Amino acid sequence: MTEARYPGYDVLAKRDGVSWNDATRRTLERRLAVPSAPRMFNPAQWQTLQALCARILPQPVDRPPIPVAALLDERLASGRTDGFRRTHLPAQEEAWQRGLDALDVEARALLGTAFCDLAAAQQDALLHRLQDGQLKDPAWGDMSGQEFFAHRVLLDLGAAYYSHPTAWNEIGFGGPASPRGYVRMDFDRRDPWEAAETKPGRETQALRDNRRVR
């Protein structure tokens, strides 16, 4: 188990304080209540997506996991987009559905079973081949598997993970801080209400500081 960088810090302690406005509170409540059942993916795609999330973003075992797959599904179902689309990729919903189907087709063709049923090492090896542009089954259509991995898998799953307050606790992020705002923006500076990172020999002080963060 890795030692926490911000022991005792809980960003949700700011929920009813001066750091967040009502819009931020509503956004966080929606993310914390994200449905566990998918709306955009069929059962096979959902299993593939959950297995993919586990390999791209393995999570600590000493805390509840961030529901990365559910956060992505909620984003797609709500119609939120990046505001632009790469010319070599279809719309994000189609890209994800086709990409998950194609990844499963590749797993069955090369290893004889569904992607979600492969051993972790086999999943990693297949994803390395996807990243390197070596997977080119017709199931990908006119979408490059390599571009799907780089511009949908890595970006979308990373964004989903770090949209959740549990991830904010890990990196000491205080959220949008509206209307309070951040003031000390230079390197190695922090506002007094921000989380204090643990330093060697200073774990107790960091714990005390973070318990005072509001």
Can you walk through the features of this model?
The chain is mainly alpha-helical. Helices cover about 50% and strands about 0% of the residues. Helix 2 packs across helix 4 and helix 4 packs across helix 5. The longest helix has 20 residues, at about 90-110. The mean pLDDT is about 90.
So what's the oligomer here?
A: single chain
User: Which percent range describes the beta-strand content?
Assistant: under 5%
Alpha-beta content class:
mainly alpha
Quick one: overall form?
elongated
Mean pLDDT: 90
Radius of gyration: 20 Å
Largest sheet: none
The number of strands is: 0
Helix/strand order, N-terminal first: HHHHHHHH
Gap between N and C termini: 27 Å
Low-confidence stretches are none
Count of alpha/pi helices: 8
List keywords for this structure.
mainly alpha, 0% strand, single chain, 214 residues
